[in-house]
Sequence to fold (284 residues):
Amino acid sequence: MLEVFQRKSEIFSYCSRRKSLGKTIGFVPTMGALHTGHLQLVNTALEQNDLAVVSIFVNPTQFNSAGDLLSYPRQFDQDLKMLESLGSDKIVIFNPDVQGMYPDGMNNTGTYDLNGIDSVMEGAHRPGHFQGVATIVHKLFSSVEPHKAYFGEKDFQQLAIIRHITKTLNLPIDIISVPTIREDDGLAKSSRNALLSEEHRAEAHRIYATMTKVKNKFDVQKIDDLIEEAIHDIQGSDNLFKVEYIEIVDENTLRPSANPQSPLRLFAAVWANKVRLIDNISLI
Fold:
């Protein structure tokens, strides 16, 4: 049975004791509803550290919709079993409640300088979302004080935000990115996939297939034409999906670039009825 801590003071003391013994700590923050993508993060943390701390906390301040927060899957017992299935005694779980993470109320979010990378793509469509992300990640980092923290590239803009605040706050934490884990049909692993209807799940392969098509044609077709074609391919004649945005940007600045040497990345956000799916791939 894995050890579970619910109070910040408890996990802080536990990690401090382990570090005093010379142990290294890898941290994997999650909102639960774990899948194999999360387990890959944990396995990577275990490979690179003496101990892996996994937080399970559905953070209210990063949701733009009360309905989305309420419908977000919560399955702690199943999450625990998944982590136990890794067969390691070097995993501990931090499972705080809202009061523990926001003792002064949820209006007490930070006002982090995010250098504008919070105002494009996800940030443009989910105002305040990345302030909520920055707030909770900073709180979690302060609770665990890990040597390394692990994030999936599926949430690439979030990864960029976390790298930015870690640098600007001068936090002594290495941010490690792990490639997106996909289903057999290419759909990026996500906790939200469980909310898809049977019909939407059967057709969700369109997203990755279309993004791959854009990558293959990127050198021979204009960007505007590629994006227009991609929107048409994902939405299809059945209008089963609704594209919120498709953008090609420099992965360092998250803004369009005319520099042919820029490391470009394709980002997409797609609605499947009330379920919002995001994905991205490198165009290099």
User: Anything to note?
Assistant: The CA atoms of residues 152 and 269 lie 16 Å apart. The domain at 191-282 is CATH 3.30.1300.10 (Pantoate--beta-alanine Ligase; Chain: A,domain 2). The chain has a mean pLDDT of 94.
